[in-house]
Amino acid sequence: FKLVRWPNLVFIVLTQVLFCYCFIEPLHKLGVNTHRDIASYALLITLSVLIAAAGNIINDYFDLNIDLVNKPSKLVIDKTIKRRWAIIWHLVLSAAGVVIGFYLDFKAHTFWVGLSTLLCVLLLFGYSASLKKKFFIGNVLISCLTSWVIVIVFLWYINSFYCTTCTNSELASINRRLFKFSILYASFSFIISLIREVVKDIEDMNGDAKYGSKTLPIVWGISATKVFVAVWIVVLIAALTILQFYVLQFNWWLSIAYCVLFIIMPLVVILQKLYKAHTTAHYHQLSTLVKVVMFTGILSMLFFRLYS
Questions:
Q1: Which of 26, 76, 90, 114 is spaced 20 to 30 Å from 32 by Cα?
Q2: DSSP-derived 3-state class of residue 37
Q3: Helices 6-19 and 137-157 meet at what angle, rounded to 10?
Q4: pLDDT of 153-166, one tens digit each?
């Protein structure tokens, strides 16, 4: 469980369950149903967890030497589990995820789930083996895969709705609404993940530099990298603030208070701490705080259920 980073897997499950609970389930009250069943959706979540777990394993496998420098006390491979068994688990979990993907394609008469799952497996392997050490490419890739957790749910449900009392234009409106929610949370996931990935690069700078990585802090230096992170934090704060002014027209006061107190203000705190940070412990604390904001951000989906 430590090897697959189970808290991250729980986060994936929570994200996808909340998306369905807050944006798909309320449609039933409008007389709208979907051709997708709960069992298939459970398999979609299982697929996401398996691929993420396999990705975490292969990442630790290739990062063994770097982790000996950066976090020797947290090593699992070669300490608790042999490298051979790590590879076997990676292959088993990846294969299981891909098989589930193609099964869902067969069952739902789609064509993209299995192929996209296979692509994710290959990208995660490529990231761990090489791309992670490249300038900025690895950061963007992981951020895209983080947002994919939400995008795959949107693609699974889009155009699957039917309603005997609705017009085609009303169903089209529902699909557009689902698209907007997906873009909102996928964008948030991308930006907050990018921020965290770059902060982690600063934290792991010593080990990365020793083994030839070309991450942002190694190429640009810590000061320039901190400016880069700060810009993205400001962009996120600005976007969330503008969103709250838009929400004002609906009088969602509880939602606005939650966003200000548990998402925007923590981001302001992170920005302040980023300016003062200068040790590995400081950057580790920042990484943890960013992860907390990821959690509170995803929990905000509940307000759409509350006000729907």
A1: 114
A2: coil
A3: 40
A4: 999 999 899 988 88
Residue 303 and residue 271: Cα distance in Å, rounded? 26
Please report which helix (H) or strand (E) contains residue 118, including its range: helix 113-129
Q: Determine contact, residues 258/304, Cβ cutoff 8 Å.
A: no
Contact 6, 289 (CB under 8 A): no
Beta strand pairing status for 33-34 and 161-162? antiparallel
Tally of CB atoms within 10 A around 63: 21
pTM of the model: 0.94
Higher pLDDT pick, 208 / 125: 125
3-state secondary structure 233-272: HHHHHHHHHHHHHHHHHHCCHHHHHHHHHHHHHHHHHHHH
DSSP β-bridge partners for residue 161? 34
Q: Is 212 within 8 Å of 133 (Cβ atoms)?
A: yes
161: left (phi over 0), alpha (psi -120 to 50) or beta: beta
As a whole number of Å, the CA-based R_g of the chain is 20
Instruction: Work out the number of other CB atoms within 10 angstroms of the CB of residue 276.
Output: 7
Q: CB 20: neighbour CB atoms within 10 A?
A: 20
**The predicted structure's pLDDT at residue 30:** 83
C-alpha 174/C-alpha 169 separation (Å) is 9
4 vs 298, which has greater pLDDT? 298
